[in-house]
Write a structure and sequence with these properties.
The protein contains ten helices and no strands. By secondary structure, it is mostly helical. The longest helix has 19 residues.
Length: 224
């Protein structure tokens, strides 16, 4: 499943979306987001507030929709001549973009979205994840040696820590440190990598202990 291209190009729905997005972006540049209301966006976009409420629901969904467009990649990841180089430069660019004020705001807008629709192109959170995963898959598809590298593992071990630090205002990851993350991750794929067992389910002390042992094994392996 992949996010669809959106409303029909040139149709009324597309024109409304473009107008509302443009007005929301303009107002966000001029005012604090807490001051912006649906009627303000509607007036600037030349539509009625009811049009926005009917299509987006509330102001948070408008901001999230605008942020999704900001997060949508406009080009394939850069090529450096090696798998490690491609992954490192992509992660550095991703870190720089997401840790900037606009990137942080976009991530928070998407997280605040209460979009529960099961449309063909998925929820806003799904789209955000899809953009990131697609970029990783493009890189992995370039290199035969990446055949045993799973895209999900890249998200779990490299992208997830980046986003966690950004969202919780921890010390940002240094660009230079990303290369070491890739070295550890790619090296771990050469051998048997212990997994935090996703199949250890159930309740009780025994299951909790099993999950703890599985996660401890994974963390110790990654820190070698």
């Amino acid at each position: 499943m992949s996010p669809s291209a959106g409303p029909r190009p040139g149709g009324r729905s597309a024109r409304i979306q473009q107008a509302v997005h443009a007005s929301a972006r303009k107002l966000l540049e001029q005012r604090d987001r807490a001051e912006i209301t649906v009627p303000m966006i509607a007036t600037d976009a030349g539509v009625t507030p009811s049009t926005i409420y009917r299509r987006w629901g509330d102001i948070n969904e408008v901001f999230a929709d605008v942020s999704i467009e900001r997060l949508r990649p406009d080009a394939d990841p850069r090529e450096t001549g090696s798998l490690r180089g491609d992954l490192t430069i992509w992660a550095q660019d991703y870190l720089e973009e997401m840790s900037a004020p606009v990137g942080r705001a976009s991530l928070r807008d998407v997280l605040m979205s209460d979009d529960q629709t099961h449309a063909p192109d998925g929820t806003k959170k799904f789209k955000c994840a899809f953009f990131c995963r697609t970029q990783i898959d493009v890189i992995l598809a370039r290199w035969p040696e990446a055949a045993d590298v799973d895209g999900d593992s890249v998200v779990d071990h490299v992208v997830a820590p980046i986003i966690y630090r950004i969202l919780f205002d921890l010390e940002p990851v240094a660009r230079s440190e990303l290369r070491n993350w890739w070295i550890r991750h790619l090296r771990s794929r050469r051998g048997s990598v212990p997994k935090a067992d996703r199949y250890v389910v159930g309740r009780g002390h025994a299951c909790r202990a099993s999950r703890r042992r599985a996660w401890r094994s994974l963390v110790e392996h990654l820190l070698r």
